[in-house]
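Write out structure tokens for Endonuclease III.
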Amino acid sequence: MGTPLDTRDEQVAAVLDRLYEEYPDSTISLNYSNRLELLIAVILSAQCTDERVNKVCADLFETYETPEEYANAPQEELAEAINSITYYNNKAEYIRSACADIAEKHDGEVPDTMSELTELAGVGRKTANVVLQHGHDVVEGIVVDTHVQRLTRRLGITEAESPTKIERDLLDVVPQSDWQQFTHLMIDHGRAVCTARNPDCDDCVLADICPSAKPDADVDLASGEAW
């Protein structure tokens, strides 16, 4: 078991320093060439790997280009085009509805505010934050995905469980200049080392400050369950 630093601010600062060094090229792993493609890719990525989404989108983005084309696509046709994605029927509905609103209410342009984005079907705060950050260069929050949830709890940075409450906690302790990269660093480390089922604590640059680190820790603070 590692020993976290005295304050959450110190803990976050140490985590950032080490992960910046470990993952100097950390960035978004979804492939897209414009804001609409980014929005669609992020909607599809919910509970699905970015690798799978990128494979599906390679063909999808050649078939459909404008909000109108997505909105007017038959439900069955669009669902078939993304049928290897989790919850593809629901996501096809979200995309068609969101694109109809973009075409009709936003002159065909992906909105650039949190309130307008979260009014679109299939778009919650996490998706909106990604689109704002990478589509509009607007950073007003921290994207909290499953990796961020898991690692921040394991590291003792937060005890909150819901993404909304975790984000609220993180905004208080993560420097604003690091809000965007914080997520990418957590994702990279979560994929490479601090995996959900069997984290490689022996090869982790954060093990000495992680209260969940095996073999000494009895409990995975992310789940609250014994290792």
